[in-house]
Specification:
Layout (H helix, E strand, L loop, with lengths): L1 E7 L11 E8 L2 E9 L7 H25 L8 E5 L2 H8 L16 H7 L3 E5 L16 H33 L1
Helix pairs in contact: 1-2
């Protein structure tokens, strides 16, 4: 089970006005991929910045789906792509490009195509629940703790799973 959470700030870099993309991908509740990186182009609205972040997140989902498929792990469609911006969701679902969004590079519109094909579903998530928020801006103590504890719990679960796996394999080797 894959679940992607995506976020962006808007023109957060005071000198360049570049926005920051952030995302985190969970597989069976464990984070397996994440990113925090400045966007390549200046965006003209918060919705556009969020849509750019969403497109980067979707590219990661498609890559991970290919890796999992190579490992004979089937991923059920549609994969949930969670964003906290209604404008970005509208851009992903809209069948036409308005004059106001024509400047959005064509490569980002593959999100819309994958959504139409039923491979992904772009869904709203409240900002307070969006774990990828931690990758795009400085958070207050309470929100930082809320999001970062999920990473620590996931790491603990992963470590416990690895210990169990190693214990089983050591018994098999005997």
């Amino acid at each position: 089970h894959l679940k992607m959470l995506s976020d962006s700030d808007f023109a957060g870099d005071k000198e360049t006005r570049i926005s920051v993309t952030g995302y985190i991908l969970y597989f069976c509740g464990v984070p397996i991929a994440w990113k925090s990186k400045g966007q390549k182009n200046i965006t003209l609205s918060s919705s556009e910045a969020e849509y750019v972040a969403c497109s980067e997140a979707v590219k990661e989902v498609q890559f991970v789906k290919q890796v999992l498929s190579a490992l004979d792990i089937q991923v059920k469609n549609p994969v949930s792509i969670n964003v906290d911006n209604q404008g970005a969701i509208y851009m992903a679902e809209s069948y036409r490009i308005s004059d106001r969004s024509k400047h959005v590079d064509v490569r980002w519109h593959y999100v819309k195509n994958l959504s139409e094909e039923g491979k992904i579903k772009v869904e709203f998530i409240p900002t307070e629940e969006n774990d990828s928020d931690i990758f795009t801006k400085n958070l207050g103590g309470e929100l930082y703790e809320k999001h970062s504890v999920k990473f620590m719990m996931s790491r603990k679960m992963l470590n416990e799973g690895t210990k169990r796996y190693n214990a089983v394999n050591s018994q098999i080797d005997k």
